[in-house]
Amino acid sequence: MPTLEIDGIEVSYGGVRALRGMSLRVDDGEIVALLGNNGAGKTSTLSAVSGLVRSSGGRIAFDGQDITRAAPPDIVGMGLVHVPEGRRIFSTLSVQENLQLGGYLLRDQAEIKRRIGRVYDLLPRLAERRDQQGGTLSGGEQQMLAVGRAIVAGPRLLMLDEPSMGLAPLVVAAVMKVIAEINASGTSVLLVEQNARAALKIAHRGYVVENGHCVMHAPAAELAEDDRVVEAYLGGA
Question: Each residue of 41-96: pLDDT tens digit?
């Protein structure tokens, strides 16, 4: 049974159809990359899964349970956590306070503390800046903080929307390394990423999205060698 299964979902904004029968799956322990140009429907897919927008058709299942109409807090409580594009940290709160907010559904303060400790082990730069305001961090550090806050929520599946946007190449490599380490610890990942080359290096499988539906699906290594993908998303080289 797939961890996440999306079957034919439809999403419209006013009269504009963003998703047109979108289907994909994420199996347990996978990193799945979702590739496509701006406006292809990648962000709408993540938003539909996390309940931020409602699909007008199709079905979304998490661990076999239908979550198509579930509320966002309930979806997070099941272990499906979304890190949206743009980081959206609380700039006036400290790193520690931002991380604590990741555990807002938990009542066990000891467990929240344990999860924050795990984040600091994984991202030692955040530990060094635990008392620093989020808004004073570098772009890469803010992205790490957004990911760390999601880890505190305890995801079984982590959805990431453009985690490398606006970051220098060395920082992009560091972010991808962290995503791979999170996956190696047992968390499945659905990764929306404009930097197709970086995404396919760490992904197991990938989907190419055009006009609101998937037009190609293959193991990541095969997509990285496909002439159509190379030409469209990997700079033709």
Answer: 999 999 999 999 999 999 999 999 999 999 999 999 999 999 988 778 999 999 99
Instruction: List the 16-26 sheet strands across, edge first.
Output: 16-26, 4-13, 57-62, 65-66
Distance CA 174, CA 170 (A): 6
Nearest to 161 by CA among 72, 42, 73, 68: 42
CATH among 3.30.70.60, 3.30.930.10, 3.40.190.10, 3.40.50.300 for 4-79+155-233: 3.40.50.300
Alpha-carbon distance of 182 to 77, in angstroms, equals: 19
CA 205/CA 65 separation, integer angstroms: 23
Nearest to 124 by CA among 57, 203, 183, 178: 178
Please tell me whether the overall predicted TM-score, pTM, comes out greater than 0.90 for this model.
yes
Q: Are 115 and 164 in contact (CB under 8 A)?
A: no
pLDDT digits (tens, 9 = 90+) for 27-41: 999 999 999 998 999
Place 219 in a pLDDT band, splitting at 50, 70 and 90.
very high
Q: Residue 136 CB: number of other CB atoms within 10 A? A: 13
For 12, the 3-state DSSP assignment is strand
Q: Which residues contact 82 (CB under 8 A, 6 or more apart)?
A: 46, 47, 49, 50, 52, 150, 159, 161
Helix (H, G, I), strand (E, B) or coil at 151: helix
DSSP 203: -
Name the token pair of 130: 């635990």
